[in-house]
Structure prediction request, 696 residues.
Amino acid sequence: MLEIKNLHVRIAEEDAEILKGIDLTIPKGEVHAIMGPNGSGKSTLGYVIAGKEDYEITEGDVLWNGESILEMAPDERAIAGIFLAFQYPVEIPGVATMTFLRTAINAVRKARGEAELSVADFMRMVREKAKALNVSQEMLKRPLNVGFSGGEKKRMEILQMSMMDPSLCVMDETDSGLDIDAVRIVSEGVNALRGPDRALLVITHYQRLLNYIVPDKVHVLSDGKIVKTGGKELALELEEQGYAEFIAERAA
Amino acid sequence: MNVHVMKTEAEETLGAQFEKLAARLPGTDWLAEERVKAISEFATTGLPNRRVEEWKYTDLRNRFTRAFEPSDGRHVGASWQAIEVALGGLVSFESARVVFVDGAFAPELSNSDDVGDGIEIVALGEALGAPPDWLKQTLGKVNVPSKADATVTLNTAFMTDGVAVRVGDGARGSKPLLIVNVATGEAERSITTRNVVVLGDRSQLTVVEAHLTLDSAATQSNTVTELLVGDDANITHIKMQGENLASQHLGTWMIRLGAHATYRALQVTTGGALTRNQLYLKFAGEGATAHINGAFLQRHKQHCDTTMLVDHAVPGCTSRELFKAVIDDEARGVFQGKIVVQPQAQKTDGKQMSQALLLSQTAEFDAKPELEIFADDVVCGHGATSGQIDEDMLFYLRARGVPEELAKSLLIQAFVGEALDIVEDEGIREALTKVTEHWLARTD
Ligand SMILES: Nc1ncnc2c1ncn2[C@@H]1O[C@H](COP(=O)(O)OP(=O)(O)OP(=O)(O)O)[C@@H](O)[C@H]1O
Ligand SMILES: [Mg+2]
Prediction:
């Protein structure tokens, strides 16, 4: 279970608060969606969960499986099962995609006390998952994310997610940049990960994704706060009415 | 020039050492005069200090406080196993090899019979006694810097041995030629070697020079390689400097390229308290290409200086340089690269880039790129960057479970790898990758 309690976050060395008291609980087995205007703090929330260091947590806590993760390094969080699919995956020239995948998977397996994958098993696993997500062999041969199109980068994120076997998946606008077929393919990949042992947090701007990945709850994040929570129908409402209601509230 | 300058202790010693040794240095009859000329030239210039522009960041007079006793070349048998260990990853590719221990040819450790048809290899120490014509015509004459350079003059005065290679017209190396220079024992000493490599027209060869110490004693090595490349010839030229952290290394490459020749070079430096790598390259025939890359990885108080001069003396040549410096602790890296385009060298295409990755607050990198262009129809450029490990890349890798140290070393490997990519031979490239891996894994 992911528990976020009264989380206040600001950028280190800057005054402005970005997250202004977030409370959010996602039990295992559930999928929650977060929607909200640009700049409302969605990616910040994802980064704070994954352990990016640019942020200062001034108040509150984030617990995963009952334990605070705020003091944990990003790699320790990955080992604890936390996975963030980035809104903007980072290009890393000179690091071969396959080398990266194998290093990451084996680092996590080793730390979890599992045996490292043999080259043959690893290759089999990549081939199988890559095929399901329509990731070409040619992409796998390139340096990590370098020169990948927007949609290719997102598919690479989901490939990594499905290979690393996380128990908390945070997906930051994974659907942005995907073509219509890719949204369906990626959603199938994500749905395959749904299960009683996993919690999923899906950040998106589009209701369309939630037709494929049907959420248990939808939250609206505006100006660093969760201003509304509802069922999957809330996404449809937002699609029709936009965020005016919440932004007006903020202005008032 | 002021001839009344006070001589330093090291300068005095070098003069005295020469007096004592001169009669015993190889090539007495025909080379003696050259050697005397060199040492008297040195007597006027002395060791360069930081007021000499080319030595701005490396004050040799200041750093070279004592001149060690020249090695007499008598060594107590180094074993190939010990050399293999010192070579680290570098032994993993198949090669013909010529080994020098403490500055003297070690035939028992060498095997260059199968380097290829039409390729002649001799040890310079022996050959200087009765030099073949091609050696006599080449030695000391390949693109020698116009301004007296103390490292080269000292090398001429004191050189004892080295490799002389002649690749006949159209001949091709069947495997790379590995030239290993090792210092052994626990006594401080200086080692002076000279290599002469002559490539005929349309010939091809890969030369790998390795400089190592087997023990912990401080060594002063001075090595010069003269490389004369014929028309349409193709050469890959690699150097690995992995001497211990007490040693001082002065290396100079003097290169002259014929028309349509292809030159690919890489210098990897992990060792040395002080390393100075000088590279003088002259385009002497049209349409030639030179790619010169370097990677230096330095920590503690190591100091590594690469200074080069690429001289476009004829039209239509292409030069590319890419130097990558990884600097930790209080180490310092220097890159001075000058591209000269002579008035007649139209259609020159010259680009140069140096990049440093600073791993600590106290690491330092000085870059001085220079372009001197006297022709109007040219494309030339240079750049220098210096920065830390990219935090976003580091976070991305760590968010995937890769521990911090491993993530950093992946990123450093990637950074250096770009320079290593110039080596086409996969075996050698992998071997050099291992050299950098060893450096990264080292904790001493
Ligand atoms: N490193 C940073 N430095 C300065 N400001 C930042 C930084 N990171 C985030 N912000 C600011 O914090 C606010 C929230 O940004 P965040 O990226 O979390 O928004 P978002 O909800 O993900 O927006 P989008 O829908 O456009 O992806 C924005 O105003 C942004 O400019
Ligand atoms: Mg965002």
